[in-house]
Amino acid sequence: MERYAEKTLAKMYQTPLPYWHEYQWPQQYASDKSTIVDATQVIDISEYLSEEGTLKWEVPEGDWVILRTGMTPTGVKNSPASPEATGLEIDKMSKKHIQKHFDSFIGEILKRIPEADRKSFKEVVQDSYEMGGQNFTDDFISEFQECYGYDPVSFLPVYKGFVVNSEDASNRFLWDVRRLVADKVAYDYVGGLRDACHEYGLKTWLENYGHWGFPGEFLMYGGQSDGIGGEFWSEGDLGNIENRAATSCGHIYGKTKISAESNTCGGPAFSRYPALFKQRGDRFFAEGINNTILHVYISQPYEDKNPGVNAWFGNEFNRKNTWFSQLDVYTEYLKRTNFMLQQGLNVADAAYFIGEDAPKMTGITDPELPVGYQFDYINAEVIEKYMTVENGLLTLPHGTQYRILVLPKLETMRPELLTKIKLLVNDGAVVLGPAPNRSPSLQNQPEADEKVREMAAHLWGDIDGLKSKFHTFGKGLVLNGMTMEEAFSLINCEPDCKLPEDNSIHFGHRTLPNSEVYFVTNQTNDCKIFSPEFRVENKQPELWQATDGTMRKLPAFEQTKNGVKVPLKLAPYESVFIVFKQKATNKSGSKLEDNFPNPQTLAELNGPWIVQFDPALRGPENSIVYTSLEDWTSSSNEQIKYYSGAATYSGSFNLKELPGKEQVFIDLGKLSSMAKVKVNGTSVGGVWTPPYKMDISKAIKEGENTVEIEVVNTWVNRLIGDQNLPEDDRETWTLVNPYRKDSRLQPSGLLGPVVVSSLKY
């Protein structure tokens, strides 16, 4: 019995990376039959316990184990929090206690702010839940009995490792406990706080996951909140499962905005800049994130201390960062991308069912989804309550549709859910996966298991997953033993966006009544030339650039049997929107050069360059003349070598004549970290990611043209340089400074080559 308890409890502790297998309980080994407790012999003797704690019970003959159980706080404190805001975690399974917490915290704030002054107070945030689980609450026994129809008291010894009736019955009881905990965490904690907020016109927002002991089911948990969000770090793996958790929840529960705490990080402070955020950010845009929350902005109380207050985590988006003056160039990209991805409905072909087990923080794509398709995770609640079939497609009330429902390789399913799946298949749905053979619950046994087996026999028929792999039922189809490629082929579902098989290109798709919007992102540091085939019929492709807001038709495309094939060329980490909204009238073949013509060089700016650093940031007082472009860190002048801030490069080029209807661009080559450009005194915009190129057509003139390029780097080099000075002479200060005098300097400045060229689209 002790070994049974040890193994069961150990499995309930989740790891920092809670992937699918972390939540699957292994089959328990058989116990010594002589130690198994008969449920009918478990007697509740609470009435014989006095208020002082003395037990007065006339013990019947026999050998008895007296087990005293009770409910106590877990002892876990909230974190991170300031000392005065630190205390025990509240009961996450009680609406009453959630209301009390709201009244004692947010309620007190509301009392102090007149209603007329609360216009900017709109949301209450629940961050990712990382404080472990709980397994009991007030009235848990009565709610359990109401939910499952049997008295849990005789099974309470299972909490302490005793086997009641059998290993199977004890495991089923624990399954029921975990499922009820997850349901109450969703409806009492998240739903309870939501209801409390709504009384004051506030909404809730949360991240629907948690590490180190998440006690809920991530989809149901997020579904009860008004707003939903994921997160990602600018490098590493955090975000790889969290954002799909958020986007799937948003898509199946009909939430228009799906946020992400974006660009969080650890590691060297101030070392990053927007170009380094792009790959990860665009990856999660493709997964469905469409509302960027920059992390982090810290209030700066000290005017005389730069770069100021920071933390060990997050990137600094505050006014004291060197590149804050050029941040608008990056945020314009984010705003355009978010706007586009909030339009219409998400398109995904596969809905991967996560199973009914709890706790659960992610799903599994098994069989693996082929390149060119998208998916969402889906839960039992949404299938049972909201899913119908329209024209053979699994359909949700807000309009989201799927071609196929994929079941995980589990043996269990409750009869209520299987009844709904049977109805969906009968109405025309396609389901892929193994047949369940029993219910996971102790509820209504053995009748529940019998119902599952009976319905499964009707739905799966003679499928054995080997010779027989599909079975028709009503208007629908049940499949098993197939890859996703085979399943999609069988139901004639072509890729939504046929892409290179190396997975170097990711995509997302939004559908509108009269338009199809695809987001396509190059996730590599190489230029990519490829011809994706979009599942669109006879429409003109257009290329929309979120970096600068430009839009143009792509003249070269080919209408194929299954869609529209478009030659594309993407720079390293470049992302574009391919939009289809007009009927195709002119198909000029599939030559890449028609969509991406080769530029014609008009001028090369080889120098000299006059560079003005900012003396207020300890740059040289006088301007510096560069005959050729070079990295600031290679300079022998320490005012340049360790310079952090903006510097302006002034140069010129000559145009003998204007190029007519062609567009004229300036390409800055390479630089670190961001730049804004003026031509002939007119601002033409800025760049923050490759290709560092912008349209200057409206600013040029015949003859001599002047160029001013303001380049800004990070705080890294100055922070390193100041480590070479006595502490009293250092002018920089920051709360968390990881740099030493021998730390590696960061390449900085305009590196070029700078070229002016023309293009005719």
Topology:
Blueprint: H1 2-11, H2 95-104, H3 106-112, E1 123-126, H4 140-148, H5 167-198, E2 203-207, H6 218-223, E3 227-233, H7 242-253, E4 258-264, H8 274-287, E5 291-294, E6 306-308, H9 327-341, E7 345-346, E8 350-353, E9 375-378, H10 380-386, E10 388-390, E11 393-395, E12 401-402, E13 404-406, H11 415-426, E14 430-432, H12 447-460, E15 470-473, E16 476-479, H13 484-490, E17 497-498, E18 505-511, E19 516-522, E20 528-530, E21 533-534, E22 539-544, E23 551-553, E24 558-559, E25 564-565, E26 568-570, E27 575-583, H14 592-595, E28 600-605, E29 609-612, E30 624-626, H15 638-641, E31 646-655, E32 663-667, E33 670-672, E34 674-679, E35 682-687, E36 693-695, E37 703-712, H16 716-722, E38 732-734, E39 749-752, E40 754-759
Parallel strand pairs: 1-2, 2-3, 3-4, 4-5, 6-38, 8-9, 8-13, 13-14, 14-16
Antiparallel strand pairs: 7-18, 10-11, 11-12, 15-16, 17-21, 18-19, 19-27, 20-26, 21-25, 22-23, 22-27, 24-25, 28-40, 29-30, 29-31, 31-37, 32-36, 32-40, 33-39, 34-35, 34-37
Helix pairs in contact: 2-5, 11-12
Features:
761 residues, alpha+beta, Rossmann fold, Immunoglobulin-like, 4 domains, six-stranded antiparallel beta sheet, six-stranded mixed beta sheet, 16 helices, 40 strands, 22% helix, globular, disordered N terminus
Overall structural class, as computed from helix and strand content, comes to: alpha+beta
- What fraction of the residues are assigned to beta strands by DSSP? 15-25%
Approximate helicity band? 10-25%
Total number of distinct structural domains: 4
Task: Give me the side-by-side strand order of the main sheet.
Answer: 7-18-19-27-22-23
Q: Work out the helix count.
A: 16
Low-confidence stretches: 1-14
Largest sheet: 6 strands, antiparallel
Mean pLDDT over the full residue set: 94
Oligomerization: single chain
Basic shape: globular
Radius of gyration: 31 Å
- What is the CA–CA distance across the termini? 76 Å
Strand segment count: 40
Keywords: Hydrolase, Signal
GO molecular function: hydrolase activity, hydrolyzing O-glycosyl compounds
Organism: Draconibacterium aestuarii
Pfam families: Glyco_hydro_106, Glyco_hydro_2_N2
